[in-house]
Amino acid sequence: MSDVVLAVNKLTKYFPVRAGLVFDRTKGYVKAVDGVTFEINDGQTFGLVGESGCGKTTIAKLLLLLEPLTDGSILFKGKTLAEMNNEEMREYKFSIQAVFQDPYSSLNPRMRACDIISEPMTTAGGFTKVDKEDRVKELLEVVGLLPESASMYPHEFSGGQRQRVAVARALSVNPKIIILDEPVSALDVSFQAQILNLLGDIQERFGLTYLIISHDLAVVENISDTIGVMYLGKLVESAPAASLYSEVQHPYTRALLSAVPIPDPDVEVTQEVLGGEVPSPLNPPKGCRCHPRCSLKQVICAEQEPEFRAGHRVACHFDTN
Amino acid sequence: MNGRLLEVNNLQTHFFVRRGIVKAVDGVSFKIDKGKVLGLVGESGCGKSVTAMSILRLIPSPPGKIVGGEILFRSEDESGNEEEIDLLKLSLIEIRKFRGKRISVVLQDPMTSLNPVFTIGNQVGEPFRLHEKLSGPALLKKIIEVLKRVRIPNPDVRIADYPHQFSGGMRQRVSTAMGISCNPQLLIADEPTTALDVTIQAQLLKLFEQVQQESNMAIILITHNLGIVARLCDRVCVMYAGRIVEDGSVRRIFKEPAHPYTRALMESVPRLGKKKRLFSIEGQPPNLLFLPTGCSFWPRCSFADEKCKQEYPPITSIEGDDYVRCWQYSGGTVS
Questions:
Q1: Is pLDDT of B60 > 70?
Q2: pLDDT at A296
Q3: Which of A131, A288, A294, B165 is buried deepest, with most CB atoms within 10 A?
Q4: Is residue A312 part of a domain?
């Protein structure tokens, strides 16, 4: 695997919890992301799934440099961010762009579509006004919007069209990697399919690398090459999308998969309903973090944390396949 | 206990706004039998929620108004006699006796549907206080009982907690407890699990199944998740731009969708274990202020011809009570 474009190694983010008015002591840490390691190959899609609060979005924020790391490293083209000089750092920042969940809040309501789409180019610098206008026109066509939409404001678009504008903005500075944080969760089914197909098309056309984050397993599976399943800040299983469903290993992944309602009335419901709720990341369970909700738990699970090794793509004490 | 519970005939709910009349629901008819689950599916703005809220007469007026149709509800009075009542003919005071007692509702977002400044015991007890005039220990006992039915652990302690002390899933259980407290004959569930995680959604779907079997109530389930429909519903009505375009049994609709829109909906959902390019419905739902002439789906339909552009298709029955509104239908799935 020579062409790894983005990798994270033991990525960790703790948010301190403070208390006290005067002394402002740190009482504990929310372990939002706790030693996550994965890599994404050039032109591939890596999907991250998990329940709310498992740290998916924190990973996106760390990669976008919106939050400082607590520990671990991010490697872009084989070089950690810490080793980069200013010039390389600048390249990284423009190589990585994002599309967020809710196009109703991610687009400034007081800017026209053309200004929204060209803003990253203004930040990057080196584009003339004519360059920008041409590029906006080109991008609108790429994402399937009419050229007239350039002068429209976000409220004039439907949800699906807004998300297209957000995609066009992400594309404007020719990034290598796009982080898609729940790109279709806020959209209706018919728009979901449109946007997923659009994302697939532009990936092929521009050779993009995606990191897609979603709680919807079916969506992630549809678009990803590799899928990582997260639970309470840790990666519990990572597998090629094609085999995750058929060769699921981790009990948590299995429960997550069986919780998705299948749109077919003839499918027997063989649900392993996952009891209880996600424990607080402030005080995660000892040992394997899944054990309080796991149906296969043994004594060892409460005591020892299973390792997640590169060779083994699952963090569980048992071979459950 | 079989037989018809609710029959909606040609319901029309319009909103009178400055720019014109929004026909949010325009001639909707459906029936639901006792103890059955009916799914209402469709995209945002197709009139699902307005239909449901019209049944409870909870349409904000102005600008909304139910301009036509009838909603026949067959209910039992105290002595066990059945009577058929047109809910639209009741006065606002009379309809209150139905809300929360014979027909109740569970809304999408338990964050906003529960009042943050009252304890959940207080809120769950409201239907008992209003409809059964209970108070004191008798009321308390009833509240604990209903919290147990929705499987909330330690109900006798949690009764004094406020909504913010509950997680999202637990809050939706509290909402459900309010909905089922007086053993309604009909429960309207408006996107009850949309705001929740899949694992919590699975827990709640199981709860709905259990509660429905225990008390044999009918449910109108509004959702856009076809997986949930397949799992819980007996019948499905597919809505588009304020009208029902197809009505049928779950099995037939999933196996042989008759309307091109139903078929497109089925094919645009990503499914686990089947990676392929999704079918996408091009374009967007029409603006309800400026509906196209003829069938409202024709601008997005690949089967449309001249006739579709001119006249709204009539009801074509398929088998039993199933019907479709499409000019192109001629048995089986359109293709």
A1: yes
A2: 78
A3: A288
A4: no
